[in-house]
Design brief:
The complex is a heterodimer of chains A (374) and B (291). Chain A is α/β, with parallel strands linked by helices and 374 residues long. Chain A contains twelve helices and 16 strands. In chain A, a hairpin with a 6-residue loop joins strand 12 and strand 13. The two termini of chain A are 25 Å apart. With 291 residues, chain B is mostly helical. The C terminus of chain B is likely disordered. Classes of the chains: A alpha/beta (374), B mainly alpha (291).
Chain lengths: 374, 291
């Protein structure tokens, strides 16, 4: 068993235990393509440059947004609040793995389709309802709120993939609060609930499989949110909303928000979040695992967006490495992080968990070096 | 939520040294003054050595960086002031520390060995040349004592100016062991290997002085485990600890038991060049964990 660590509880952050809806943004942003013009009308669920438009409205401008760590041009679609949908959807029941992959691609869930395609023979299905950091609750709340749809979809996926049973993994600290799941799990005899310890990075595929004692190469691991997206696809619906957690010690109330894809983070914050500290810093997709972004203005919500952490700004001062070796001791992949830093090279085994950064007393951005080539 | 900073670790280390310095002032200041063997101003001599080091580092920081840069040099220079013999001349000490510290900082890129031990050896070498090398205080020279085991534990034995209290060192070690950044394996393996050899030696020769060498405990807990000048991998730390323990024992028998740990640490730390200059390694191609 890989030696994982439990993170300290951050008592200054309490996430409200319910989903807040923000379904009517004034505008959304989609990375630009050549064949769009100002004032073009965009229907809801129409595909632009591989992205699904989550609202209907007119193209009104261009803005730089952050996609995959790069600033790219995006068109601004101003919401007409009519939800006009025109896209034709092929409705065909999914019976096997190949049809499932095809269906996911139709509904622009290629990243899930790739997960399935990359495994030659799927012998195990594990659904992870685990939020890595204390700054996120989106997996837990998705299961708590949409438990019926999630369990039904897991059951359906188990049959589609030709498996005898599947595993729903959740943190042992969370399970007591998912009373609804417990009340109906008995009706799904092929879904086994497994409680995992509250340790950082346990939801990473290899570590989770290692804990469950099943081979990683034969296992498909999906999150509860990914299962919910599949549920939508199986019901012939595009995914137009995602859950994101906005938390941190620089805001008055930490929330899990159900919002439209392409919404600007700035608009969500203006509507729902009150920042209480002027000198703050913003982390995208986790305080430890994620990365710091220079401004909230450029961030738009995509399927990759998991959490936004707004914390009081810490000192940026980087001091000399004291060669304490804490980075190497804490690395779950047993990488000689200090050697990578001293010799300035990245490492293939790095999974970008950010623990080396987190423990470094000299404040050195070690992840930037070790994870650099990923 | 971010974990400890270097500054906090340095401050914690220095705070742990304060009780030992206070005991040093009592033993090598007050008790000697009580017998009217020194001037009142010399009561604080153990503190002067520590303050000289800190002052030199402060001035260096202000001249070079125009601000105070809290790093392990403060701990190193404080430790140096705690391990020197009582009769070290304050002026000579200051001059040696200034010169060596400046040279070490100028060559910092190439310095991987434990420089505290090197400066310590230089100071002892100068004292030896000046025929003033002794670890005995005026009290030890003028009075005869018959110490029992408790006296040894409290720190009445002969050694560095503020480094002889086994009880205080043990408390500090217990505190440091709980610090994630402290290299606890090094002192552990130094003491285990040294003690085992010393017990065997005692069984053969009935010479207890090698066994009751508090300086080894102090040196292992504070000096040998300074993070900048010790190995960072667990296996290397264990090997390093055992090597220092064995070397200390040999030096303690054949040369001097008080300087043994420092000379051993200096010699062992020279081998850090092997650990840290390994620049030929390529990216690992091992992939036990698939993505």
């Amino acid at each position: 068993m890989i030696n994982l660590i439990k993170l300290k509880n951050n008592n200054d952050v309490n996430i409200v235990n319910k989903i807040n809806d923000f379904q009517s943004p004034n505008s959304i942003y989609i990375p630009i393509v050549d064949n769009v013009r100002a004032n073009d009308y965009v229907y809801k669920n129409s595909i632009i440059n591989g992205y699904v438009s989550s609202i209907s409205g007119s193209i009104t401008g261009i803005k730089k947004v952050l996609i995959n760590n790069e600033l790219v041009n995006a068109v601004e679609i101003t919401n007409d609040f009519k939800e006009n949908a025109k896209a034709k959807i092929r409705k065909k029941k999914v019976n096997n793995k190949e049809e499932l992959i095809e269906c996911l691609k139709v509904f622009k869930l290629d990243f899930i389709a790739d997960k399935i395609t990359n495994i030659d023979k799927i012998n195990n299905l594990v659904i992870s309802s685990i939020d890595e950091e204390n700054y996120s609750m989106k997996e837990f709340l998705r299961l708590a709120n949409d438990y019926s749809d999630i369990l039904g979809t897991i059951d359906e996926l188990t049959n589609i993939l030709g498996l005898k049973e599947s595993t729903l993994a959740t943190k042992n600290t969370n399970y007591n609060s998912i009373s609804n799941v417990k009340s109906i799990i008995g009706t799904y005899p092929n879904i086994k609930v497994t409680l995992v310890p509250d340790k950082y990075m346990i939801s990473y595929k290899d570590f989770l499989c290692d804990y469950l004692n099943i081979p990683s190469s034969e296992t498909l691991v999906l999150t509860t949110n990914e299962v919910y997206y599949i549920y939508n696809a199986l019901k012939f619906k595009y995914v137009d909303s995602v859950l994101i957690t906005i938390s941190g010690n620089a805001i008055a109330k930490s929330l899990v928000i159900n919002t439209r894809l392409g919404t600007s983070l700035k608009e969500i914050i203006n509507e729902l979040i009150k920042i209480t500290i002027d000198d703050y810093e913003v982390y995208l997709n986790g305080y430890i695992k994620g990365r710091r972004v220079s401004s909230i203005d450029d961030i738009i919500i995509t399927l990759d967006t998991e959490s936004i952490v707004i914390n009081q700004k810490m000192s940026d001062e980087v001091t000399d490495c004291i060669k304490c070796g804490a980075c190497e001791r804490i690395c779950p992949c047993h990488i000689n992080v200090l050697k990578c830093y001293l010799n300035n090279y990245s490492h293939k085994r790095c999974i970008g968990c950010g623990l080396c950064d987190y423990v470094c007393p000299a404040n050195i951005n070690l992840k930037e070096i070790v994870w650099r080539d990923k | 939520m971010k974990t400890a900073k270097t500054k906090n670790l340095v401050i914690q280390h220095i705070l742990l040294l304060i009780p030992l310095i206070i005991y040093g002032i009592y033993k090598n200041g007050y008790l000697i003054y009580e017998k009217k063997l020194i001037q009142p101003a010399m009561i604080l001599k153990p503190l002067y050595f520590v303050l000289i080091g800190i002052f030199i580092k402060l001035v260096y920081d202000l001249i070079r960086y125009h601000k105070i840069k809290v790093d392990y040099d403060y701990v190193c220079l404080s430790l140096l002031g705690m391990i020197v013999p009582y009769n070290t001349n304050l002026i000579i000490y200051s001059i040696v520390v200034i010169i060596t510290f400046i040279i070490i900082k100028l060559l910092s890129k190439y310095i991987k060995f434990n420089y505290i031990c090197l400066v310590y050896i230089i100071i002892l070498g100068i004292a030896y040349i000046m025929h003033s090398l002794t670890f005995m205080t005026p009290l030890d020279l003028n009075y005869s004592y018959n110490f029992d085991f408790l006296d040894i534990l409290m720190g009445r034995s002969i050694g560095g100016i503020s480094s002889t209290s086994l009880i205080l060192i043990t408390f500090a070690y217990i505190f440091l062991v709980n610090n994630y950044y402290y290299k606890k394996n090094i002192p552990l393996f130094i003491n285990i290997s040294y003690l085992l050899l010393a017990i065997v030696y005692y069984a053969i020769t009935k010479n207890i002085s090698i066994l009751l060498n508090i300086e080894v405990v102090f040196g292992s807990v504070f000096v040998s485990s300074i993070p900048n000048y010790s190995p960072y991998r667990k296996n290397n730390q264990i090997f390093y600890g055992i090597a220092i323990g064995v070397l200390s024992f040999i030096i303690a028998i054949f040369i001097n038991r008080i300087i043994a740990i420092y000379v051993a640490t200096f010699i062992a730390s020279l081998f850090l060049y092997i650990e840290k200059s390994n620049r030929s390694s390529k990216k690992s191609t091992k992939l036990p964990i698939s993505k």
